[in-house]
Amino acid sequence: MWLPFIGFIIGVILGLLTDWRIPDEYSSYLSIAVLAAFDTLIGGIRAHLQNVYDENVFLTGFFFNIILAASLAFLGVHLGVDLYLAAVFAFGVRLFQNIAVIRRIWLAKWMEKRQKS
Amino acid sequence: MKKIRGNDVILSFVCLVLGFMLSFSYQYTKDQATKRNITDRQWQKEYEYRQMLIHAQKENRKLKEELMKKQEKVRQIETSLANKKAAYVDLVKEAEQLRMYVGKVKVKGKGVEVTLADASYIPNEQNATNYIVHEQHVFAVVHELLISGAEAIAINGQRISHRSYIVCNGPVIEVDGVQHAAPFVISAIGDPNVLTSALNIAGGVKDQLVNDHVVVKIASKEEIVLEPIFRTNHD
Lengths: 117, 235
Known about the structure:
The complex is a heterodimer.
Chain A: H1 2-17, H2 27-49, H3 55-79, H4 83-116
Chain B: H1 2-35, H2 40-102, E1 107-117, H3 135-147, E2 152-155, E3 158-160, E4 166-169, E5 172-175, E6 178-180, E7 184-189, H4 192-199, H5 205-211, E8 215-226
Antiparallel strand pairs in B: 1-7, 1-8, 2-3, 2-7, 4-5, 5-6
């Protein structure tokens, strides 16, 4: 159970220790990738709480979403349309929805626990 | 247990990637923020400094213009001063020249010396006056010399000015009140060739003098020094 947490910590430390910098024009890719990762993670937590969690879906979703978002942003840059905004919008909306679902589940659990006690 | 372990490994890997991305992004944005973190206050300050700089530059330009104007003025003054100085120098030269002509200063130069002497042989007592040098002879020589361009003339070393007079006074002649006896040495500064040839013209002054039994000696000199006239005339 502690292994994912340790992995997270190690990732944070690695990220802080990395010295190389990406050029300015790729900053939108980075932000969208972060957003996609967040979205997938929250989605995974929600699925876990709803008992529909599937490892393969989560894994493929995590990496595929990141790559898709990045390629969408890439396409947008080359077409002259800010397509990454669409990705940001979609991910953001989904992020909020998932968080709302998680909150409701937790709230329901808590209420249940309180009624029992 | 083993399956859960595998799950955990994969999940931890995902978490590692996420953590990496998060912290990397955070660091990146922090860098960006510090790079172009210009607050309103800073803008204001920059504006203020810019304004001050512009003000200083304006002032500088004004001062520079003033300086250029002043320099121009100085240059004008200098040139006018130089012109004046040149004029003064010219005037001094001219004055010197005029003094030389008038006889107020000592002059020196090439010239001729004409010596008029009484005839050494007088055949007849009654005609003695025909054999001595008269003032008209001196006149003739002086005139001839002046006409031919002599710049300064002296008789027996006495400078003759434009106001000089020569009169016959018995056996001597008087130049500006100073008596001179024969032989008369008339020195003239000028081109020696011109002067001698002027005197030697056929039927000219020399011939006339010789006709009047005057012994004439004309010599070109490399250097003749004439003393200035110190005394005023008619006293």
